[in-house]
């Protein structure tokens, strides 16, 4: 399966917020989002720690461009690559992480404060929820 095929699959969100903010909600969602995007280093570290820990349980295959993949990168590489994607001036627009044995794709990009998880199994979501919670993050089901 290529990346485009995953994008039409059910998805979950790993985020700084515990659920999706409704369009008609009060508050200042966009100001808060901008605040965290301006401090993307905080999120980069949390997401890197989560993915590095996930790699203890699953083989991860990682790509910057969706064409060139590296299986089980060193933790320092994972952190650096996520940093190249989630930085004030990103050198890579997205980072793709494949969990092949679960037929799951994760995608992070500079424009978002979240990671999208496409086509996850229940077991993978349970583990991601535990890893995300340890980093002060939340996992919730997207509008599929």
What report would you give on this structure?
This protein is of the alpha+beta class and about 140 residues long. The chain is about 35% helix and about 20% strand. It has five helices and seven strands. Helix 3 runs antiparallel to helix 4 (about 75-85) and helix 3 (about 40-55) crosses helix 5.
**Main β-sheet: number of strands, strand sense, barrel status?**
7 strands, antiparallel
Q: Strands of the biggest beta sheet: in what spatial order?
A: 3-2-4-5-6-1-7
Q: What is the mean predicted local confidence, pLDDT?
A: 90
Quickly give the structural class: alpha+beta
Uncertain runs are: none
Q: Give the overall silhouette.
A: globular
Order of helices and strands: HEHHEEHEEEHE
Number of helices: 5
Distance between the termini: 19 Å
Rg over alpha carbons:
14 Å
Strand content: 15-25%
**What is the total tally of β strands?**
7
Helix content: 25-40%
Please specify the SSE layout and strand pairing.
Elements: H1 3-6, E1 11-15, H2 29-38, H3 40-54, E2 61-63, E3 70-71, H4 75-85, E4 94-99, E5 104-109, E6 115-118, H5 122-134, E7 138-141
Antiparallel strand pairs: 1-6, 1-7, 2-3, 2-4, 4-5, 5-6
């Amino acid at each position: 399966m290529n990346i485009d095929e995953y994008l039409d699959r059910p998805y979950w969100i790993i985020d700084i917020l515990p659920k999706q903010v409704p369009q008609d909600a009060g508050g200042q969602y966009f100001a808060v989002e901008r605040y965290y995007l301006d401090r993307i280093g905080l999120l980069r570290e949390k997401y890197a720690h989560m993915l590095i820990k996930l790699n203890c349980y699953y083989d991860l295959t990682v790509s910057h461009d969706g064409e060139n993949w590296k299986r089980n990168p060193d933790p320092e590489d994972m952190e650096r690559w996520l940093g190249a994607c989630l930085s004030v001036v990103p050198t890579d627009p997205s980072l793709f992480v494949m969990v092949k044995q679960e037929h799951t794709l994760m995608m992070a990009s500079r424009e978002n404060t979240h990671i999208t998880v496409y086509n996850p199994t229940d077991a993978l979501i349970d583990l991601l929820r535990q890893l995300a919670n340890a980093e002060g993050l939340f996992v919730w089901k997207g509008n599929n």
